[in-house]
């Protein structure tokens, strides 16, 4: 990854320490004020320049261009994932990358658990997180081409939490 990067939903800035020196600047979006304050503190020690803003991706001008967009555990919490992804695609230069680590819909019993918790209490207690979304399909629907993707488990498969399965991938704007 290189050039100018937009990180959406930066949280407390956990990713900042991992950007390679080939990145010229990270513009980190975190609309939650308490998290943004922690992200600003994390930006001070980052190996690359990081600017933290309280804006949202919708707040950027149409002429603004990035070489890459990073989304970590954010697409589960937006109301319109495909719409947000289309907006992010419009902010990428042609050939630019989307790198993502996101909750995804599981199959079988865990998938049924995800649908149940999404319809009842989980979004209210977990920052609007919807665990049973087909995030990978949304990425393709938004006009990205997936270059590589894999699924990871954050907890053992037997653990009864709905947020155990993640998609880790790289897509690009054609």
TrEMBL record:
GO molecular function: S-adenosylmethionine-dependent methyltransferase activity
Annotated Methyltransferase type domain residues: 6-98
One Pfam family linked to the record: Methyltransf_11
Protein name: Methyltransferase type 11 domain-containing protein
CDD domains found in the cross-reference section: AdoMet_MTases (cd02440)
Record InterPro entries: Methyltransf_11, SAM-dependent_MTases_sf, Thiol_S-MT
SUPFAM superfamilies attached to this UniProt entry: S-adenosyl-L-methionine-dependent methyltransferases
Organism: Mycobacterium lacus
Lineage, top ranks: Bacteria, Bacillati, Actinomycetota, Actinomycetes, Mycobacteriales
Domain of life the protein comes from: Bacteria
